[in-house]
Input
Amino acid sequence: MTGKVVLLSCLISLIVSVDVTAQTIERCFIRMPMELLPTLPVNSRKDLIDFYKNDRIASMPAALNGTMTLKQLSDDYLLLQTTSQTTLQLKLLPVTDSTNILAVVYSTSGPLTDSRIRFYTTDWKPVTSFKAPVLNAFDFLDTTAAGPELSNRFNQVCVRLFIRFQLKPGTTTLTAFPSIKEDIPSELLEPFNTFMKDSVTVNWQHGGFVK
Output
């Protein structure tokens, strides 16, 4: 048995140790450790879910006179506005036909939006073997149509890259939205406008997001 097979077997064993009935976003959200969401106690989370399901404004007071709002909730996806500039996404992704992994996306706007992805079992044990997609400026340019010279110039113009990741209910895709147009003056981007992509979508396959 190879090392990869052993690792996957261990991960599956770790995940299936959790009751399969617990594998809904609602229950995972309620059980999310306080250190990962310290300003929203369990009872407040339950209230948010109840408000959302009853078509009420699903908002609760948060630290520093802020507000947390539950924006979306399905069996496999949750979107929580944690502050005016930050969001939290929870998403169940399949590992096998009967087990899931939790993807947690933290996004911060300051003012450019950037996202970070972490993975956990459904009972909130960190998992480091699953990886977020690694994207660069070239991923947001049709390099074939632009040609090598223009593509290299584009890479030089995009000296930094912030990316907002967006998950969705009912799918296993992840859409990446770059900050390029908000970050770089339009006159510098003018030569590349025809070839630029507003977003890139990657698919969840074999324990990772694949371009």
